[in-house]
Amino acid sequence: MKIKCGMILAAGLGKRMQPLTLNKPKPLLEIKNISLLERSINLLISCGVQEISINVHYLSNQIKSFINENKFNVKINISDETELLLDTGGGVLAGTSNFKDKPFFVINPDTLWNKEYMEEIKNLEEIYIKYNKPSLLLVDKKLSLDTSFIGDFNLKKDLISKDKENQLIFTGLHITNRNYLRSEKSKIFSLNKIWNDLIKDKNLRGLESKQTFYHLNTFEMYNKISSLKIID
């Protein structure tokens, strides 16, 4: 693939995963003996990414130690938000200064990523290159193990909209560049604010994933996913 940079959002507090996250940051929780963070790193490496930025906040020293001990075959930078949590948009903007004007993946390790996503990510990259607009990987909420999602977006061809009723949810992976974040005046801001503005201007693109969606957002969902016979 052509995109060589990636950002992993690992600064969340993981409160809904307690008691598992009382003494361990959520990205280091494991499914089938592989941490959520390692799964995200491995996916980006498989995509051809050569430089990764990871933002940290809660129990940040554990994540730093994990990176140092594992010696991944990729350059990894730590964006330290220990003193101030910047939300998703602010975190991405602060963590990607080394990428300059290059496009990059942004990935949330809360999703159970695996090699089955590779072809879809390649197709998403093609959409991004075609339009040079932020592009999100979405999935029908019917494919989610967690049935509580009400839907975030709709998709017509590859143009994202947000309507009264929405069938698709965000998987946690998208492609963007810093140009779409720099205009925000606040240091702390959500990616949703950026996406809402792009939707109004019909500038947000997307691709629908066909994978079963496993999202570890609560203690109960972690236990449910852990009990499944998932083959990586």
In words, what does this structure look like?
The chain is of the alpha/beta class and 232 residues long. The chain contains 6 helices and 11 strands. The longest helix has 14 residues. The chain is globular.
What is the gist of this entry?
The protein is α/β, with parallel strands linked by helices. The protein has helices at residues 36-46, 60-70, 87-95, 118-131, 191-200, 219-226; strands at 5-10, 30-31, 34-35, 51-56, 75-80, 104-107, 135-140, 154-156, 159-161, 168-176, 205-209.
Query: What is the CA-atom radius of gyration, in angstroms?
Result: 17 Å
The chain-level structural class is alpha/beta
Helix content: 25-40%
Strand content: 15-25%
Inertia-based shape: globular
Distance separating the two termini = 21 Å
Task: Record the strand order, biggest sheet.
Answer: 5-4-1-6-10-7-11
| Weakly predicted, low-confidence segments | none
Mean pLDDT: 96
Q: What order do the helices and strands follow?
A: EEEHEHEHEHEEEEHEH
List how many beta strands DSSP finds: 11
Instruction: Give a quick account of the main beta sheet: strands, pairing sense, barrel closure.
Output: 7 strands, mixed
**Count of alpha/pi helices:** 6
Top keywords for this entry?
27% helix, seven-stranded mixed β-sheet, 232 residues, alpha/beta
Task: Give the SSE map.
Blueprint: E1 5-10, E2 30-31, E3 34-35, H1 36-46, E4 51-56, H2 60-70, E5 75-80, H3 87-95, E6 104-107, H4 118-131, E7 135-140, E8 154-156, E9 159-161, E10 168-176, H5 191-200, E11 205-209, H6 219-226
Helix pairs in contact: 3-5
